[in-house]
Amino acid sequence: MTFAGAGQPSSGRTFPGPTFPGRLADGKRPQDAQPGVDVDIPAGEVWLGGRFTAPEGAAAVVVFAHGSGSSRHSPRNRYVSNVLIDAGFATLLFDLLTPVEDAQRANVFDIGLLGRRLVEVTGWLRREQGADGIPLGYFGASTGAAAALWAAAELRADVGAVVSRGGRPDLATPQLPRVTAPTLLIVGGKDEAVLELNERAARQMTTENEVAVIPGATHVFEEPGALEAAAGLARSWFTRHLIPATARRH
User: What is residue 243's predicted lDDT score, i.e. its pLDDT?
Assistant: First the structure.
């Protein structure tokens, strides 16, 4: 797995594979980890389940933040993750809450809590062997998009790009002006209420941003071709902002 520094061409250094300061979900020692593994990630006093995949030659990583009522097993996020992996990105999907926490409805909409979890997990990634300083982006869906923007505002230059799918950026309103990462807000054309919230959020942001509308799509992008279109937009945005031109795959 080869990572490049943010905004710099890949040095060609090949890392022996990720090692984790946490523990694998199957009980193996951290040094036994291989790309495409289920892991338990330490976050304060809890452990969060995750799935980390790093294709050979990956030069950037995208961390996913799922929406309310979902998890790392979200079929839509997994689809987008696979599209990004095929394009050469490493990806991490993880649970923002433990099962006990998720059962408490208030936690699902506690954007500060979710954002802090994302910051902690990002720190976990940054501590991996050879992963410090690599280009990193966030992909958030629904309330997870608010968490992604909250965390991006806290970490600022450490996050190179953010993509929101059917997101609720309004839930992170106080943080929006502090976000420095270029942000793409993808919204379904038929998701009119959320589209208005995204357009309003875009006007509150001072960083480069864009609202991309998928015609005919509703909030969950279940219409034929809608999710594929959203995944393609995300891939292009992350490629543009995270992958140096000399390292892009053609």
Answer: 87
What CATH number labels 23-247? 3.40.50.1820
| Alpha-carbon dihedral sign for residues 132, 85, 241, 12 | positive
**3-state per-residue secondary structure call for 209-232:** EEEEEECCCCCCCCCCCHHHHHHH
Does residue 15 have a pLDDT over 50? no
* 88-139: pLDDT as tens digits: 999 999 999 988 888 888 888 999 999 999 999 999 998 864 467 789 999 9
Give the C-alpha separation, 172 to 65, whole Å.
14
Which of 158, 116, 160, 129 is CA-nearest to residue 54?
A: 129
Phi/psi class of residue 36: alpha, beta or left (left: φ > 0; alpha: ψ in -120 to 50)?
A: left
Q: Please report, for residues 51, 67, 116, 222, the alpha-carbon distance to residue 40 in angstroms, rounded to integers and kept in the order given.
A: 9, 20, 17, 30
Q: How far apart are CA 140 and CA 161, in angstroms?
A: 11
With b for 16 or more beta-carbon neighbours within 10 A and e for fewer, the 111-145 pattern comes to: bebbbbbbbbbbebbeebbbbeebbbbbbbbbbbb
Lookup: tokens for 55: 């294709």
The model's pTM is: 0.84
C-alpha angle 54-55-61 in degrees, rounded to nearest 5:
45
Evaluate the CA torsion angle 23, 39, 146, 107 in order and state its sign.
negative
Q: Counting runs of H as helices and runs of E as strands, what totals does the chain give?
A: 7, 9
Residue 234 — φ and ψ, nearest 5°? -65, -45
